[in-house]
Every structure is written in structure tokens, then in C-alpha cells.
Write a structure and sequence with these properties.
This protein has about 350 residues and is mainly α. It has 9 helices and 4 strands. It has a domain of about 180 residues: Glutathione S-transferase Yfyf (Class Pi), Chain A, domain 2 (Up-down Bundle), CATH 1.20.1050. The structure holds glutathione.
């Protein structure tokens, strides 16, 4: 089920390794890879369960790219052909007309041997996959798709702060974003101990940093916050139990819990999150570490809208810009998949 680096590649290996995105063409303003930025030409394929895809969901909302780059949401449960569009009528994506994301991969490259991963951007006219390079996709949203940004869109990757943003993101990736996966798919005690220690060591450092400042870099929301958010928002629901990162829960860490609630309550963050998809995907797909596929009842999802008081630290969430408008009706996450607060 769901072969690939996220699903099964870690099992039985000495060390969990994340395989590189294979399709790294870029969609740019000048179209140098043959894929120019163009409203309505591409389709963003995600799973709301996936932290890497969720970066793209948040960034797309903050920048107001919903109309320019329409969305396909895959079923959180992959089958042996991977991501599928079983949430759509007749099990087909209504625009691409395909049942499996792998069909877009096949159109791009026949006999591609790697995993079929999200996020993915597909060229609608040709039905071909353009990119599954999740590290690049959101940076390009911020810097290449500018002509299609909404009015008041924030600068998520400000030039003057890029060096620091890149440094923070690299540390967060190694110890937190990917660290939880290394802990979860560890093949032995030693590997688990090292990964888990790294997760909590880095979270402690981040909490110290965030006790003094509202956001990770500068005084506005940047790409670095998006990347930390998508892991933190899953922490208590899946990483604490399923991946055994259980030294403490996020909700027990005053600073990180307040930081997470602050972002969650910011338009464009919490409104992309689907806890039902997250929990069912992790607990039901990773049968190597949860053979029964039982999805636990917790955690208690109350309290996400409680006051966080982070505004007392200052900060200007959108800089000189403004918050995004409401979620397009067709993209709203069902109320029963979200905290009742
Ligand atoms: N494949 C990307 C990361 C994205 C990723 O791992 N996505 C997961 C979902 S959270 C996925 O689609 N896994 C299925 C697979 O790779 O076969 C990479 O280059 O590391």
C-alpha cells in the first residue's frame, strides 16, 4: 500500500531515507523550463494529510492563488496505485479526468520507477506532471507567481531575510519536519533514540527563540513559519503517538502551543487543516508501524481557538499586506474534520 518514501521505504532499512523529488522542473515567470506561470493552466494536487503538500495549501491561500491554481484533493488513503481521486464524483478528478495521480506521472515519463508523491503540479492541457519538488514549489509561489498574487499578499520570502530563513528552514527540516519521520520509521532503538532526541532538542531551541519573537524570522509570517506549522499542527494527532515522539505533547509546551494556535487562527493556516484526513492517513496507511490500522480517538481537539496572546510580542503577521479572504466554498474542510473549539 502506498509504496514510496513516506509509506514504506523506511521499513526494514537500517536508516530511514527520504528519496529526492524526481521531477524538478520549475514554473517560472519567464517560463525557462517550458512552464510559464499562467492563470488556470496548472492543477495543484495535494493530500490534506501530507505535511509537505500542506505547505503549498497554506502558501497558496496566503498569496491568494486559489483561482489561478485550482486544487485537486486526493483521498487520504492510498491504495497499491498510490494517490487516487476517490473523493470526486466517479472517482475521477473532474478537470484532469484521471483516477490516479500516477496517470499524470506516466504521461510525463513512462515506466517511472519512483514513488508517486504529493504535492504535485500537473499541466492541464497535456495532463503531464510538471513538478513534485515540494521544497521548491512554495518558494516559486512566493517569488515567481507574483503577477497572480492577490492584492495585499504578504512577502513570504523577503530578499533581505533569505539567508536567515534558509538557515532556519534547513534546521527545522533536518530535526523536525523530517526528524519525526526518522523517529517514526526507525528500524532500531539507536536510530529512534537519536532521531527523537533531535526532534525535542530542536523544539526546545525553537521554543526559546519563539518566547522572544512572534515569528521565526523577522516580524512577519514567512515561509519558515509555514514549514514549521505543517509539522507542529500534526504533532499531537500523529507524531506523538504513531511516530512515538512522545517526550511531551505540543499542547504541554506553553510557547509552542501558543505559537501554533496563533498561526492556526490566522486565515490561510487553520482553514487548510483536515484532522480526519491526517489521522486516517497516518494510522491506516503505515501498516508497518500500525498493523491493525486502528485510528485512535484522541487527542482532544478543543482549545485551538483559545486566546494565544502572541500579539503582545508585536509582529505584523502580513507585513504591509492584509489577511486572505474566506476559503472558496468548494475547498472548505468539513466542520467535523476540524476542532470544535
Ligand atoms: N516525495 C517528496 C516528499 C513528499 C512526500 O513524501 N509526500 C508523501 C505524502 S506525505 C507521499 O506522497 N508519499 C508517497 C510516495 O512517495 O510514494 C520528497 O521528495 O521527499
Amino acid at each position: 500500500m502506498g509504496a514510496g518514501e513516506d509509506g514504506n521505504a523506511g521499513y526494514g532499512q537500517k536508516r530511514f531515507r527520504r528519496s529526492k523529488s524526481h521531477f524538478a522542473d520549475r514554473i517560472t515567470a519567464d517560463g525557462r523550463d517550458g512552464w510559464p506561470v499562467e492563470a488556470g493552466r496548472y492543477r495543484l494536487v495535494v493530500s490534506r494529510a501530507c505535511p509537505w503538500a500542506s505547505r503549498a495549501l497554506v502558501s497558496r491561500r496566503l498569496l491568494g492563488l486559489e483561482e489561478a491554481l485550482p486544487l485537486a484533493v486526493a483521498d487520504p488513503i492510498q491504495d497499491d496505485r498510490s494517490w487516487r481521486f476517490t473523493l470526486d464524483p466517479d472517482g475521477r478528478d473532474p478537470v484532469l479526468g484521471i483516477r490516479y495521480l500516477s496517470e499524470a506521472y506516466d504521461r510525463r515519463e513512462s515506466d517511472y520507477p519512483g514513488g508517486v508523491s504529493v504535492p504535485a503540479i500537473v499541466d492541464v492541457p497535456s495532463g503531464k506532471l510538471v513538478t513534485n519538488d515540494y521544497q521548491r514549489i512554495t518558494l516559486d509561489f512566493a517569488t515567481e507567481w507574483t503577477a497572480l498574487h492577490r492584492e495585499g499578499a504578504p512577502d513570504l520570502y523577503p530578499r533581505a531575510l533569505r539567508e536567515e530563513i534558509d538557515k532556519v528552514m534547513a534546521e527545522v527540516y533536518e530535526d523536525v519536519n523530517n526528524g519525526v519521520y526518522r523517529a517514526g520509521f526507525a528500524a532500531d532503538q539507536e536510530e529512534y533514540d537519536a532521531a527523537c532526541a533531535g526532534v525535542f532538542w530542536r523544539l526546545d531551541l525553537l521554543a526559546t527563540r519563539l518566547a522572544r519573537q512572534r515569528y521565526l524570522v523577522g516580524d512577519t509570517i514567512t515561509e519558515a513559519d509555514i514549514r514549521l506549522f505543517t509539522t507542529l499542527v500534526r504533532f499531537d494527532a500523529v507524531y506523538h503517538g504513531h511516530f512515538k515522539c512522545n517526550r511531551w505533547k505540543l499542547a504541554e509546551n506553553e510557547v509552542l502551543w501558543a505559537y501554533l494556535r496563533d498561526l492556526y487562527q490566522t486565515p490561510g493556516f487553520g482553514d487548510t487543516v483536515d484532522f480526519d484526513h491526517i489521522k486516517r492517513h497516518y494510522y491506516q496507511v503505515h501498516t508497518g508501524i500500525n498493523p491493525t490500522g486502528i485510528v485512535p480517538i484522541g487527542p482532544d481537539l478543543s482549545g485551538w481557538s483559545a486566546p494565544h496572546h502572541r500579539e503582545e510580542l508585536g509582529g505584523r503577521p502580513f507585513g504591509d499586506g492584509t489577511p486572505p479572504g474566506p476559503v472558496p466554498a468548494a475547498e472548505a474542510v468539513p466542520a467535523h474534520h476540524r476542532p470544535s473549539c
